[in-house]
Write a structure and sequence with these properties.
- By secondary structure, this protein is mostly helical.
- It has one domain.
- The chain contains twelve helices and three strands, in the order βββαααααααααααα.
- The protein has a three-stranded antiparallel beta sheet.
- A hairpin with a 2-residue loop joins β2 and β3.
- Its EC number is 2.3.1.199.
Length: about 300
Amino acid sequence: VCEEELPQSRVEYSDHSSSTSLQVSRLVVKMNVTEFQLPLTEYEFEREFDERLAIEWMQDNWKKSFLFGAVYVALVFGGQHFMRHRQKLDLRRVLVMWSLSLAVFSIIGAVRTGCFMIYILSTSGFKQSVCDQSFYNGPISKFWACAFVLSKAPELGDTFFIVLRKQRLIFLHWYHHITVLVYSWYSYKDQVAGGGWFMTMNYTVHALMYSYYAARAAGLHVPKPCAILITSSQIAQMGMGLAVSALVYRWMQDGDCPSYLDNIVWASLMYLSYLLLFSSFFYQSYVKCKTLKAAKKE
């Protein structure tokens, strides 16, 4: 441990066709009588992405996430048994490329979704940023919302590096991977409120986390405060996730936040468990270890 389907959105969009590789879309948000506009650069692949097909596919296939989870658990613990009496594999170069790829993906995702969320916050306020469904179908964000939920399947591959390199596998690691996969697929199909915050926060934290993993795998010296910062950001993410879930429930009662009670319950339980587990990890890794080291010096 010491080492380490629902009401429609209030945001309207107008697309302008273009033969160039990118275009500018104007997002129009109606707030009472005032109308705000802001040009956002939208790349062609983002503009042409059909989120309706993606959502329909997820509605038909989201339960396969349980199958992926079951196969994942079997392979992980079966793999540990298989490696028990075998030499560990190095895989350092492969791990660098793997972590670097996920870092780049997460950084781009954080920037693109972050720009969209900042726009909603600056024009419509915090409540609208929580309750608005436009994150699932708006320019720029619609592609990255789908990319986010689909990425949770290949991210399961993180664990196999731990297994094949015979590193210690903690409960938090594999539990987190499975539950995020299932919940993100489960929520995307219904386009529930709060998704913009959940996904943007996760993209941002993963941008830091996978960059750290890539640097460590490459043999670079990374100061310990960086690891503390990443774990702290994960704890903050879980706390914010709980807060957003509570606000969705509160505003759903007023008819302003499109969601379902069962989704809110699962989200709250998931984020609460993460908060407790990451807080425990923080204590064991950075507080308790520091205390033990200080005691040994005395």
